Amino acid sequence: MDIPDGAAKKPTAVPDAMSEQEAAFEARIAADGRIEPQDWMPAAYRKTLVRQISQHAHSEIVGMLPEGNWISRAPSLKRKAILIAKVQDEGGHGLYLYSAAETLGTGRDEMLEGLHSGKAKYSSIFNYPTLNWADVGVIGWLVDGAAIMNQVPLCRCSYGPYARAMIRVCKEESFHQRQGYEALLVMMKGTEEQKAMVQDAVNRYWWKCLAMFGPPDADSPHSAQGMRWGIKRISNDDLRQKFIDATVPQAKVLGVTLPDPDLKWNEARGHYDYGQIDWDEFWNTVAGNGPCNKERLATRVKAHNDGQWVRDAALAYAHKQQERAIKEAA
Ligand code: BYC
């Protein structure tokens, strides 16, 4: 059928209105402004945020498990109290992040479904076992240390609720990092056996912490767009390098050796050179084949199911309150 010239060229109202919204979005991103939940945003921007926030929230929640194992075995009341507070903080971080995802239209039930079915990702580091008490200190020093390095730039993320959640998270992670480092300092002043425990924990965690920053920039499918949208501010490799540069002097003060024979200062680059991360192991763990993947997921699903009665009771209470408020208003 022939379409008359005029009709074919006539623009429809919808694409024009959309491009205006898109232009406003792009202008705000270019001006380094914040996007808020009520603002129009491209579907791909929303999807990327939900993907990253989901990975982040689940990391906080699953990340409670390896340290949680040590609450009943902490060596003193002081260490136990610190560890309970820290693990509780991680749960809180997960909740801020689930709330940030809710502002994008993705509900908590949907996200938890993704986690419990094994579809959603979380940081590969939490699929390794915590074998001795020094592991708890090393998680604070290195795992929380890497998380801070990654999360400080996220405080400037272009999406308002994610950026604001990160401000409080970073303050709490700072305490987590210091308590871990302090616990290790104490052990390094102890017996030869205690010192060996710290070194063993550092040996097992070092490379896995470097992988927390994600794959190399060249193999990172989401980095370029994430950076263009101002979601990510510093690339995976640059953050990894910043973490290594900051950690080497801390290791010296502590008196431990970082397990990398290639780790040396490069005067020309003004950074430490470092060896090869085992990316095959990383991708294998991300795919669900780490030493603790299945155990972590099963523990997490059980904890969720065990808590069902609390959620049911809270829901019933909220309904009762609502009914009372309606009666009073009538
Ligand atoms: N582990 O293109 P890329 C904490 C995935 S918990 C597993 O670079 P992006 C704590 C990535 O998701 C807080 N998967 O992606 C808690 C993507 O998969 P999909 C930890 C990883 O998003 C308790 C694919 O690989 N911090 O502090 O641009 C106790 C390609 O990657 C990992 C966060 O979660 C990984 N390590 O950048 C103690 C930070 N890395 O979606 C401490 C928040 C990458 O294509 N997240 N993948 O299937 C981020 O900053 C970014 O998502 C990443 C990755 C830098 C991790």
The CATH class is Mainly Alpha
Q: DSSP strand (E) fraction?
A: under 5%
Q: Enumerate the spans where pLDDT stays under 50 for 5 or more consecutive residues.
A: 1-15
What do we call the CATH homologous superfamily? Ferritin, core subunit, four-helix bundle
Task: Provide structural commentary.
With 330 residues, the protein is an all-alpha fold. The protein has one domain (21-259): Ferritin. 68% of the residues lie in helices and 2% in strands. It is built from 14 helices and 2 strands, in the order H-H-H-H-H-H-H-H-H-H-H-E-E-H-H-H. The protein has helices spanning 5-9, 13-30, 43-62, 64-68, 77-102, 108-116, 133-154, 160-188, 192-210, 223-228, 236-254, 279-289, 293-306, 308-329, and strands spanning 264-266, 271-273. The protein has a two-stranded antiparallel sheet with strand order 1-2. The radius of gyration is 23 Å and the shape is globular. The protein binds benzoyl coenzyme A. Benzoyl coenzyme A binds at residues 51-52, 55-56, 59-60, 63, 67, 90, 121, 123-124, 139, 143-144, 147, 150, 211-215, 220-223, 226, 232, 236, 286. This is Phenylacetate-CoA oxygenase subunit PaaA. It comes from Thauera terpenica 58Eu.
What topology emerges from the helices and strands here?
Blueprint: H1 5-9, H2 13-30, H3 43-62, H4 64-68, H5 77-102, H6 108-116, H7 133-154, H8 160-188, H9 192-210, H10 223-228, H11 236-254, E1 264-266, E2 271-273, H12 279-289, H13 293-306, H14 308-329
Antiparallel strand pairs: 1-2
GO molecular function, one term: phenylacetyl-CoA 1,2-epoxidase activity
Protein name: Phenylacetate-CoA oxygenase subunit PaaA
InterPro entries: Aromatic_CoA_ox/epox, Ferritin-like, Ferritin-like_SF, PaaA, PaaA_PaaC
